[in-house]
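Fold this sequence, please.
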Amino acid sequence: MKKLLVLIAAAASACTNQPAPAPPAQAAAEQARPGRMWNIERETCAQLLAVSDDDRMAVAMFYYGHVAARAGIRVIDGAQVEARIARAMAQCEANPALPIVQAFQRALVARRAPPAPRS
């Protein structure tokens, strides 16, 4: 649960454009790696599925927060986080060409039923 809270805090800070401080070992590793620009709207599920389990969870939490913020979701049910991430990952596994953001939109944003026809 503590790891989940840390990931949620990191996702929230990413949504507010205030980076969370990285641990010293992680910061050094990031400096050694060449930078890569990610287009949040265009990255595909194949790219998400190709990263390590730890990176996949971090990316998933980022997208969870990003999609929730864009949808105006102000309350997150902690008991549902794992299930919704699992649903988004299932979307990705079923369609690797799908943009990650769309997989998370399908998993997080409730679809409203169309209005009933008037008589």
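Confidence is low (pLDDT under 50) at residues 16-20, 24-34. The radius of gyration is 16 Å.
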